[in-house]
Amino acid sequence: MTSTPSPSGKSALDPEIAARLKRSTDGLLPAIAQQYDTGEVLMLGWMDDEALHRTLTTGRCTYWSRSRREYWVKGDTSGHVQWVKSVALDCDADTVLVQVDQVGAACHTGARTCFDADVLLKDAGAAGGAGDAGGAGDAGDAGGADSGVPAPGQ
After folding, report:
1. DSSP per residue over 124-146, as a string?
2. How far is CA 25 from CA 22, 28, 29, 67, 94, in A?
3. Cα(152)–Cα(154) distance, rounded to whole angstroms?
4. What's the CA gap between 109 and 105, in Å, rounded?
5. Which of 23, 51, 136, 139 is the most buried (most CB within 10 A)?
6. 94 in Cβ contact with 28 (< 8 Å)
7. Rounded to whole angstroms, what are the CA distances from 108 to 24, 75, 79?
8. For residues 19 and 114, what is the distance between their CA atoms, to the nearest angstrom?
9. How many Cα atoms within 13 Å fall on the side-chain side of residue 14?
10. Which residue(s) pair with 64 in the sheet?
11. Spatial separation of the C-alpha atoms in residues 26 and 48, rounded to whole Å
């Protein structure tokens, strides 16, 4: 189920949802697919308003292919379907989290997840690790070295 977007850019996405979205300059949002029952991060795709509308209304993930310039429904050619369980917008309204029930591989390489092959850091430890509550964060964090607000316990 692929098709090119309409030249008018019109979408059937609920206008209240569309008004909240903060898109990139090319009109896209990153969409993270996550296995609903394990929390496993499966892949990152891109959605415009129409792809999000189709995802919300069909129960299957629809993405926008930046290279092919067309919509694609995950699993239409591979059989590796993503059945949508929930869709959430992040706090900045610039990223979508789609919790899915993944059938088969999520990655185009045939791997279960796109994030297995090239691990940059693993088991960094509690002291100073990525999950350390007192670590550096952006100014929007509730605390941390760069925020100017003491982290909990400091």
Report:
1. --STT-TT-TTS---TTSSSSTT
2. 9, 7, 10, 16, 12
3. 6
4. 8
5. 51
6. no
7. 24, 10, 12
8. 31
9. 6
10. 71
11. 9
d(C-alpha 19, C-alpha 10), whole Å: 13
User: Scanning the structure block, which residue is given the tokens 């509550």?
Assistant: 133
User: How far is Cα 66 from Cα 93, in angstroms, rounded to an integer?
Assistant: 21
Q: 84: which 2 tokens?
A: 């949508």
Per-chain mean pLDDT for the chain: 83
**Within 10 A of 145 (CB to CB), how many other CB atoms are there?**
13
| Sheet strands side by side (includes 29-35) | 41-47, 29-35, 96-102, 82-89
Main-chain dihedrals φ then ψ at residue 51, nearest 5 degrees: -65, -40
Task: Give the end-to-end CA distance of the chain in Å, rounded to a whole number.
Answer: 53
The confidence score (pLDDT) of residue 147 equals 42
pLDDT in tens, 40-90: 999 999 999 999 999 999 999 999 999 999 999 999 999 999 999 999 999
The two structure tokens encoding residue 9: 């850019």
pLDDT value at residue 128: 57
**Nearest to residue 23, comparing CAs of 3, 5, 50?**
50
